[in-house]
Amino acid sequence: MKQTKHRFQPKFLLHGADYNYEQWLDYPDILAEDFRLMQEAHCNVMNVGIFAWAMLEPAEGLYQFDWLDRLLDSLHGNGIQAILATPSGAKPPWMSQAYPEIRRVDEYGRREPHRQRHNHCPTSPVYRQKVRQINTLLAERYGAHPALLMWHVSNEYNAHGCHCDLCYAAFREWLRNRYGSLDALNHAWWTTFWSHRYTDWSQIEPVDISIHGLMLDWQRFNSDQVLDFFLAEIEPLRASTPEVPLTTNFMRPDVGLDYWRFAEHVDVVAWDSYPRWHSQPEEWPVGVETAFYHDLHRSYKKQPFLLMESTPSVTNWQGISRPKKPNMHLLSAMQAVAHGADGVQYFQWRQSRGGEEKFHGAVVSHINGRHTRVFQDVQNVGACLAQLSPATAVSPQAEVALLYDFQNEWALQLAQLQRSEEKLYQERCIAHYQSFWQMGIPVDLISSAATDLSPYRLIIAPMLYMLRDGIAERLETFVRQGGTLILTYLSGLVDTSDLCFIGSSPLRPLLGLWVEQTDVLFAHDVQTMALEADNELGLTGSYPVTHYADIVHMETAVPVARYGHDYYAGQAALTVNQLGDGCCYYIAGRPDGRFLLDFYAALGKKLGLARTLQAPLPLGVTAQRRRHSDQATLFLMNFHSGSQIIELDSDVYTDAMTQEQLNGRVELEPFGVCVLYPDRKESLQ
To answer: Whole-angstrom Cα distance, residue 7 to residue 246?
Structure first.
């Protein structure tokens, strides 16, 4: 694949918002006030032009750039840079009317009306041509503008799929390239089941959920087709402004895109983060989930990322969204920076007066002005980011990797298992990640396509249901060369075409066992696993097991824990298999978070995994480091509604905000964050 041209390295941490200047052209007093307030909020960047196509081209071939000229000139005059968007995320109504083919078709063959956004056909040559035209004009007009910092390509791509004739033809061509022949395709999809065997390519329509291989490939195609659209969209930008970096804003892994592939083609990963703070009795579970997604976006390129969208207050689309409590906005902003963000930005700068998001939170609300707690919270974040500007590099090299694979999740979602409720792939990945978050041990996320596993000492691959080509061999090599691998139930069941393995799984040599059967548990069923006496990890006691429980036959593996009851009582529930210089653990059931923390704490001690702080951290408090040059910035974050005392190492630290010297311990207030510089230089990997 073609690689990107730049690595985006800002000289300061970015602070800004989506600014819909074009919504306020009839309100010159408000526009003038906006630039004053941006200065007060310590904003140094604005995302502009998003969804502005109808204002840029109000009729076909009639362009109006004067308002955008004034906007960029005003930003530059106020010392603020612009991340300029291309407008493809929302086409104007005249275009939908003039060119019906650009509108998506649903799975029942109905062409959708013009409505909402992100509703274009990604295959349409007409739409691609229109996008190229407007992007070329933007690049030629603004490529050398002193305000331009970066291109923001479209907005929040998704792969929900279009069922028009153009997309079906492209899908069939994609299948020809993948399989070569109908015979190969029929075998890969096992179409003799229910007499679905295809005899002509034209018979293939991706609407039959009973053929899992078909629907999995349709998801892959949709992801690839959106990526192809993106690559076509950036061509005029790369041609006219090769020196200007570009990005597009990713989201959580629920929009049908394989972001591992997308990330190869952006200069910096950016994403939109909207945690549901205050939605649970304790705040730290939301903190864990948010940290996981931050680390995922850092891991795509193993580079710093941008927090492109967040809310300074509330959302209007989550059902219930509470205002952030005191300190929470600073804590959530610093959490992003701690995990690798080089900027914190918001949707939106000023609340819209009408439309879908008129009640979505903003830096400047309908009541206007600077005299709100939200505006003052944003001011505080901006001031803090300005003081942290040197810390713009990634975390120290992680020793732990967690394998998170989009295509594995798609296949697992399609699978009709004996327990198809609450498969919870993302949630279980986060559950394993949580233990390291609590211990202050950094974690990279990797995909099944990762080829170099050598930087890691421990790899965790929860629910690796689908084995994509080569992953079993790479994991075996990793273990034989001294690595420690964790695998779990629902692993190694199907190949990359979603065909079940016959005889035994390719993971069998790694596991040193084979799985005969899986017991699945209703909500009222709770299995247990009891640790073997004198096991190698020094663990004791018994832990609950829910949802799934594999019944295994041991070969070279040895038991570490055994099931407590039912007809398979006494059989292995946790095993370890020595292979070469390393070992592979198998967790045969779904344990709770208490087990995972105890297990990974013992394993971390055995492997000598480095912690950010040596002293144990209270539950709900986490510690992260970022490096710059030969020094590391320490972030201490309290996701509790009460104060917490943190024991520091023996070093003397300087508080980045107050410049006070600290040693021994730090008290974090409720939802408090402390950013510390060590008073000695550190040798980092």
So the answer is: 10
Instruction: Tell me if residue 131 falls in helix, strand or coil.
Output: helix
- pLDDT score of 333 more than 90: yes
Nearest alpha-carbon partner for 293 in 250, 333, 329? 250
Instruction: Check whether 650 has a pLDDT greater than 50.
Output: yes
> Over the stretch 482-506, which tens digit does the pLDDT of each residue have?
999 999 999 999 999 999 999 999 9
Domain 621-678 has CATH 2.70.70.10: no
What gap in Å lies between CA 277 and CA 427, rounded to an integer? Answer: 17
| Tokens linked to 666 | 């730090």
Cα 304 to Cα 342: distance, rounded to the nearest angstrom: 6
By C-alpha distance, which of 94, 157, 101, 147 is closest to 124? 101
Percent of the chain with pLDDT over 90: 88
The residue type found at 206 is: P
pTM (global) more than 0.85: yes
Q: Identify whether 555 is a catalytic site residue.
A: no
Q: Which of 33, 101, 112, 156 is catalytic?
A: 156
Instruction: Answer whether 344's CB lies under 8 Å from 295's CB.
Output: no
d(C-alpha 67, C-alpha 272), whole Å: 27
In whole angstroms, what is the distance from residue 566 CA to residue 553 CA?
A: 17
DSSP assigned state of 26: T
Neighbouring-strand partners of residue 252: none
What are the two backbone dihedrals, phi and then psi, of residue 674, each rounded to the nearest 5 degrees? Answer: -130, 130
Name the residue ranges covered by the structural domains of the chain: 14-177+229-387, 400-607, 621-678
Query: Rounded to an integer, what distance in angstroms lies between the CA atom of residue 582 and that of residue 481?
Result: 6
Residue 388 contacts residue 323 (beta carbons within 8 Å): no
Q: How far does CA 378 lie from the centroid of its chain?
A: 24
CA distance 161 to 218: 8
Q: How far is CA 418 from the centre of its chain?
A: 29
User: Which 8-state DSSP code applies to residue 4?
Assistant: P
Beta-carbon contacts of 77 under 8 Å, excluding residues fewer than 6 positions away, are none
Cβ atoms of 614 and 648 closer than 8 Å: no
Q: Tell me which of 289, 309, 399, 409 is the catalytic residue.
A: 309
Helix (H) or strand (E) holding 654: strand 653-655
Return d(Cα 282, Cα 620) in angstroms, integer: 9
How far does Cα 107 stand from its chain's mean position? 28
Instruction: Determine the 3-state secondary structure of 197 from DSSP.
Output: coil
Of 3.40.190.10, 3.20.20.80, 3.40.1010.10, 3.40.50.11320, the CATH number of 14-177+229-387 is 3.20.20.80
Does 302 score more than 70 pLDDT?
yes
Cβ atoms within 10 A of the Cβ of 206, count?
A: 22
Q: Hey, what are 134's tokens? A: 């407007």
**Helices within 315-424 (DSSP H only):** 328-338, 373-387, 406-414
SS3 606: helix
Give the Å distances, CA to CA, from 245 to 150, 233, 242, 249. Answer: 5, 14, 8, 14
Which of these, 299, 295, 228, 304, lies nearest to 267 by C-alpha position? 304
Let me know if 421 is a catalytic residue.
no
**Do residues 266 and 246 touch, judged by C-beta distance below 8 A?**
yes
What is the distance, to the nearest Å, from the Cα of residue 39 to the centroid of all Cα atoms in its chain?
31
Tokens of 638: 């309290």
* 400-607 CATH fold: Rossmann fold (3.40.50)
- Is the distance from CB of 674 to CB of 668 less than 8 angstroms? yes
Quick check: 406 and 464 in contact, CB under 8 A? no
